[in-house]
Write a structure and sequence with these properties.
The structure is a single chain. The protein is an alpha/beta fold and 278 residues long. Helix content is 46%, strand content 21%. The chain has 10 helices and 10 strands. An 8-stranded mixed barrel has the order 1-2-4-5-6-7-8-9, surrounded by 4 helices. α9 links the parallel β8 and β9. It binds ligand C2E and magnesium ion (3 copies). The site of one magnesium ion has 4 residues, from β6. This is EAL domain-containing protein.
């Protein structure tokens, strides 16, 4: 085995660790370059009124388009962007792209609400509210046509998170809790959260058509949302049976491959025009 006598006096050398950290360093460098060179694309996934089948909005989902490696999933690079802090500049770029594009669609006669995911790290960036205001001003998108998706993890610091979300809502922007039911959700504090929409996590939708517990959970979430005047949306719908089970349990909004996969801008544009023609 190779021995290294580094300045911290470590005597051994684990080749797998070294390989991993090298890959990680390469990945971070690539990601930094990609941010500078804007090698990303925003895909848009339709949000559907599952009763009427009509389009109500779309979620912006980022993809890294690497010149050699092709399309890289956000599951692979968002965590790295978060850990390194690169999510701050990347997140601003994503928000600006999504707002700019949605403004274009508005001007073409498509009044849709775009939802943009925000990392916990972004919530706690100190100039977040000013950054969002600037992006809205710059792009001309009215605030009510923007929604931000956050996860329950931010509520570990409940008071701080609540105060920040309140400032965002005061601008007129909507807030949605993503992946609801998987994190720190507590029915005792949900009533005090400055939130407009609860997005039920895909794990409850996956088996809702044949699992009574998932049905009961969805029903409970819908009941609570209604009593708090919040909207509910289901994510990860792939089957007609799931749509039926959701309707039975009072959930009227949904998103999933059954309706459409996330689409590149041009494809979503075509989708919009088809939807309008229906
Ligand atoms: P998320 O916000 O919960 O987004 C939902 C994910 O489920 C998306 O994966 C979407 O493509 C996928 N999905 C939608 N419908 C279905 C379905 O019917 N079946 C299945 N199996 N999957 C479905 P994606 O695009 O790979 O994004 C993964 C996660 O990466 C997102 O989860 C979000 O946490 C994060 N992410 C994506 N874009 C952004 C972004 O712009 N900013 C930040 N901070 N995070 C992002
Ligand atoms: Mg989301
Ligand atoms: Mg989600
Ligand atoms: Mg998720």
């Amino acid at each position: 085995t190779v021995k290294s006598h580094g300045k911290n006096g470590y005597e051994f050398f684990d080749p797998t660790m070294e390989a991993k950290s090298l890959e990680r360093i390469l990945m971070e460098n690539e990601l930094r370059k990609a941010i500078e060179q804007e090698h990303f694309q925003i895909y848009y996934q339709p949000k559907i009124d599952i009763v009427t089948g009509k389009l109500t909005g779309m979620e912006a989902l980022v993809r890294w388009v690497h010149p050699e490696l092709g399309v890289i999933s956000p599951i692979r690079f968002i965590p790295i962007a978060e850990e390194t802090g690169m999510i701050i500049s990347l997140g601003e770029w994503i928000l600006r792209q999504a707002c700019r594009q949605n403004k274009l669609w508005h001007d073409q006669g498509f009044p849709l609400k775009v939802s943009v995911n925000l990392s916990a790290r972004q919530i706690y960036q100190k100039d977040l509210v000013d950054m969002i205001k600037n992006v809205l001003e710059e792009t001309g998108l009215p605030p009510e046509w923007l929604e931000l998706e956050i996860t329950e993890s931010i509520f570990v610091k409940l008071e701080e998170a609540t105060a920040i979300l309140q400032q965002i809502r005061d601008i007129g922007i909507r807030i949605s809790i993503d992946d609801f039911g998987t994190g720190y959700s507590s029915f005792s504090y949900i009533k005090s959260l400055p939130v407009d929409t609860i997005k039920i996590d895909a794990s409850f939708i996956r088996d809702i058509h044949h699992n009574q517990e998932s049905q009961a959970i969805v029903k409970a979430i819908v009941t609570i949302a209604q009593s708090l005047n919040m909207n509910v949306i289901a994510e990860g719908i792939e089957l007609d049976d799931q749509v039926a089970a959701l309707q039975e349990n009072g959930c009227d909004l949904g998103q999933g491959y059954l309706f459409s996969r996330p689409l590149a801008t041009d494809d979503f544009d075509r989708y919009l025009r088809k939807d309008l023609a229906q």
